[in-house]
Design goal:
164 residues
Length: 164
């Protein structure tokens, strides 16, 4: 049981040593320890304030980033719309030019067809005139008395004529 009940001398010397230690700590170490704790507390507060400031800056940067991305999307949409309008305009111009060219070609073809038709009619008239002269020559060669006989001969020669 000697271990459970302390000796009064031991208690005295332990209390005296503890008091002396507290006095020495208070006299020499307490202020530097408090100063170190206070300095550490200020450092922690400064770090917390810097972290809050950094967090606010990050939030501002995120908001700015979102705004920039929205602006970029709007600009992209505007550019795409302008490109589509330009494409449609170019297609419309190309269609218009193609239609104009087709109209010119058709008009030119019509003019040429009309010219060739007129030439064919002219050639046909020349052939008819030649045939008429031939028929008249043949009529004059034969001495005819009646107009009925002349008409019959003219009809006969016209049937013989090949227009090809």
């Amino acid at each position: 049981m000697g271990l459970l009940t302390p000796d009064p001398g031991l208690v005295f010397w332990s209390a005296l040593t503890f008091g002396l230690l507290v006095f020495i700590l208070k006299r020499y170490a307490w202020k530097p320890i408090l100063h170190a704790v206070k300095s550490r507390e200020e450092t922690i507060e400064y770090a917390l304030a810097a972290a809050k400031k950094a967090k606010a800056e990050v939030e501002d940067l995120n908001a700015t980033k979102v705004q920039i991305m929205n602006d970029a999307k709007a600009e992209r949409d505007t550019l795409i719309k302008a490109a589509r309008e330009l494409k449609q305009s170019m297609l419309d111009d190309a269609k218009s030019k193609a239609q104009d060219e087709a109209d010119k070609i058709i008009a030119s073809a019509r003019v040429q067809i009309e010219r060739e038709k007129n030439e064919a009619i002219l050639q046909l008239k020349e052939k008819v005139a030649e045939f008429s002269v031939d028929i008249a020559g043949k009529l004059l060669e034969e001495e005819l008395e009646s107009t009925d006989k002349q008409k019959a001969i003219i009809d006969k020669y016209l049937q013989e004529v090949n227009f090809n």
